[in-house]
Specification:
about 425 residues; seven-stranded mixed sheet; four-stranded antiparallel sheet; binds pyridoxal-5'-phosphate
């Protein structure tokens, strides 16, 4: 079944405001820098997999045809060897980091493991606690659990109300037994954004290190590791940075800490003289200490155009539009979706909210499928009953938001979702 009307819906309340906001949007021209294969599709899942930047296609083609095809192994000396450092330096201003503090390599989960283990092992055994919360991404909790088991420590998962970061409870839990505090800066489910400086200070006052996962912030929410004195951080590049599926994640280590920590996955790329091919491991200094093995060059080459576009737009302009988009979406949800049984489960305080808004509904799973299959709206579903609506300021407009909400209204009113009640898919 396909919906008869895909909109736009100029007759519906809220449309004029959206049209006005689009007209006065200083970032509207960025939209054409991304591939829109289906002009009717409204993509609200850039917080899970960002869109393809047009320039990325050319960049990857160049890497494949020229650097690999033509130049072959000579390319290692023509820029490949340092590509993860060069891109890390390029990303650094978006993190409030200095050159030489960031690399792009491996996945977020692997980087988290490396840094969490390195941090915990820097403390005496008496510091036997790792602290996180129940809003953290499950993979992060699994990784921190492995680190705790392997180092004879305990992982404490502080309980929240399901939406907001449990800052007060964290204040009570973080103490002199804590080695490491590791949290998502913006949480994947509700979109709650922690005050980076506040929680970092809490950890430091207790003598512990912090390890932030900024997967749902980087490229959407301004970050200042330097200003907040953050020790360690990781994050995805395939969400708001649009680096492509499984693109190498970032890893940040504050300069002063780099030579004090040991990389638990010591590989030849972190050796002082990798081409000495010595059987004895001697770690190099600086951020290269956190390298492990050969970098995925083709995937790295796909990241640069996305970072460039965020830098070009400026993270502050992106944040301003992101707040306007989420505020507008919340207004539309309150007006049109709440009467149909939806509940907003993201923070109402704009300063504590990232760039997505989550709504809950008893029939969220089939509604989400109907939106994708019949209404050309792609949000995502998170078990058991949440639909996340991700707003990527570089390519999402206000009329897009209005249209998506109106299509959802039509889906639910016509009960289009009834046909999907029992359907199962691998990826949600
Ligand atoms: C998306 C996300 C990840 C993904 O990790 P991968 O190793 O790339 O699969 C990890 N942590 C958080 C907080 C995320 O949002």
């Amino acid at each position: 079944m396909t919906l008869p009307d895909l909109g736009p819906f100029p007759g519906a309340p809220g449309y004029d405001k959206a049209a006005f906001l689009d007209e006065s949007d200083p970032l509207s021209h960025h939209r054409d820098r991304y591939v829109h294969a289906d002009p009717d599709l409204i993509y609200l899942d850039g917080n899970s997999l960002g869109s393809l930047p047009v320039d990325t296609v050319k960049a990857v083609e160049g890497t494949i045809h020229y650097e690999w095809g033509d130049r072959l192994i000579r390319s290692w000396n023509d820029g490949w060897w340092d590509l993860q450092l060069r891109l890390g330096d390029k990303l650094a201003p978006l993190l409030g980091a200095q050159p030489g503090e960031v690399i792009l390599s491996d996945s977020t989960s692997v980087n988290l493991y490396k840094l969490a283990l390195a941090a915990v092992e820097a403390y005496p055994q008496a510091r036997d606690r790792i602290v996180t919360d129940d809003l953290n991404f499950p993979s992060d909790v699994y990784v921190l659990g492995s680190v705790a088991r392997q180092t004879g420590r305990t992982l404490e998962i502080v309980e929240s109300d399901g939406i907001n970061g449990p800052v007060e409870k964290l204040t009570n839990v973080i103490d002199r037994r804590t080695a490491l505090v590791s949290l998502s800066h913006t949480t994947f489910q509700s979109g709650y954004t922690y005050d980076l400086a506040e929680v970092t200070r809490l950890a430091h006052e207790a003598g512990a290190m912090v390890l932030w996962d900024c997967s749902h912030s980087v490229g959407a929410v301004p970050i200042d590791f330097g200003g907040a004195d953050v020790d360690l951080a990781v994050g995805c590049t395939y969400k708001y940075l649009n680096g492509g599926p499984g693109s190498p994640a970032f890893l940040y280590v504050r300069a002063e800490l780099q030579d004090q920590l040991a990389n638990p996955i010591a590989g030849w790329w972190s050796h002082a003289e990798p081409f000495a091919l010595d059987l004895e491991y001697r770690p190099t200094s600086g951020i290269r200490r956190f390298h492990t093995g050969t970098m995925p060059i083709i995937s790295l080459s796909a990241i640069e155009a996305g970072i460039d576009d965020v830098l070009d737009a400026s993270i502050h302009a992106i944040r301003e539009k992101s707040i306007a988009l989420t505020e507008y979406l919340i207004e539309e949800c309150e007006r049109s979706l709440q009467p149909l049984g939806f509940e907003i489960v993201s923070p109402k305080d704009r300063n504590r909210r990232g760039s997505h808004v989550s709504v809950r509904h008893r029939e969220a799973w089939p509604i989400n499928l109907a939106l994708i299959k019949d209404a050309k709206v792609i949000p995502d579903f998170r078990a058991p009953d949440t639909i996340r609506l991700g707003l990527s300021p570089l390519y999402t407009g206000f009329v897009d938001v209005h249209t998506a909400v109106q299509r959802a209204v039509e889906v639910v009113k016509a009960r289009v979702h009834d046909q999907y009640a029992g359907v199962v898919t691998t990826v949600t």
